[in-house]
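WARN no homologs supplied; continuing
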Amino acid sequence: MAKKSSTARKTMIVTFKKKDKRAKSDDKQSILQNAIGEELNFVTADSVSTQARPVASGQDMMKVGYDVNRYEAPILIANLTDAEVEKLKKDKDIARVEEDGEMFALDGPDALAQSIPPGVSQIKAPDAWPSSMGEGIKVFICDTGIDSDHPDLVKNLRTGKSFVPTESTTEDFNGHGTHCAGTVAAVDNNIGVVGVAPYAYLYPVKVLSSTGSGSWSYLIAGLDWIMSKKGARVASMSLGGGGAPQALADMCEAAYDDGVLLVAAAGNSGNGVQPLFPARYPHVMAVSAIDFNDQLASFSNTGSEIELAAPGVSIRSTTRGGGYGNLSGTSMACPHVSGAAALTWGSHRSVNNKQVRWLLNTFADKIGDQDPNKFGNGRVDCNTSAFWIGTPQEHTL
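OK structure emitted
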């Protein structure tokens, strides 16, 4: 068996101590580069190119890293050798050095006059529309991109960004992101389908490639970019995986504290299997999948982290190339809750993400055997959440 080269590089996520807790006054990049004796080029959320390459043509991609320049989550992502990793682990100003890993789109098996999809009706979105249609609420679809020409999405589509190094465009080459986007905010335009919050703004944040997979570092960078935006923000994450780095938990906590409502699919491994990351984190709303009879979908993960349930079986929505089709999975349940969050936020515009979370949890409909490990607080209810009058409390962890 060939011996593994000590000079081979792999993507590592380096979390530093907060700046006022470091022994040295140097910035993150200087500390890393001094430790490894290597000149690296770091990009940020704002400097990631929207052109055909993530950095200027001709640069060595193995020497390009990503800088999360935030006090709450001081992170550098870089391609490092084993020897460099060992040096960094000995630096007292570095909290953790973790290897990057993979996450995946969480769709399951399955696939014109305008119609309201059954799932949208099941969570009572049409009943809430007289109060709110989510106008102007920003929903960031962290996924494979969005079909930029789809007639049911283009009106609500805003400029996003790709964090997949080989696919800098946010165009969807897989279809998963386009399907999720339609459930959130397909336009009310007399064709195709209509989404839960048909006036919400859709921002494609590409963190999964055309194969439906991506690295945790892509999601960390995507959340960093979302945090740079202002106003009411929902991050819809129909993705997940196991063995996520602690840096991702830090980033989710930082984004949540910054005002982003985080919603994620629980996973499709079946009843009795704990939700995947990032849904497992306390700062993220974990969503299980139910069918149109309010029964738990056979594929849906369960556990104490489940917060809400939503339709996820044979969900009709937008597809690549301007079409429509059905998909199943907790990936399809997640955008129902993200859309519900946009509707609720749209009718309570002075509240924060923690108050929206409280509203969604407080006014969910009890279903089935009311087992919280299956359904959390119940099936999300747009109508009651949107029409409730008063000052919402803040969700507490």
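Residues 1-5, 50-58 have pLDDT under 50 and may be disordered.
OK
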